[in-house]
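name: query_chain
kind: protein
chains: 1
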Amino acid sequence: MSTSDLRSLLDDVPDTFEIVLRRDPAWSPVLEAWRDAAEEASEALAAWRHHPSRAAYSVYRAAQDREDAALDSLVQTQTSRTSVS
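structure:
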């Protein structure tokens, strides 16, 4: 599957704006979402390094993008908790 085919396929998937967590959220679902995303990105990076290919790189970049988005949400959540009005 080409990169453009993959992008086209993913563009047709509607975003439900839902977060799926693999662990029971301890105290912060946003923190747990970031931890899950970071773990997934790390595993995808290892897989890409072990078997380099375009597909493996695409999986890694998608996982890294999810980790970045989760980190942005975490930082925003932490900032809003500590900011003074």
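note: Residues 29-85 form one domain.
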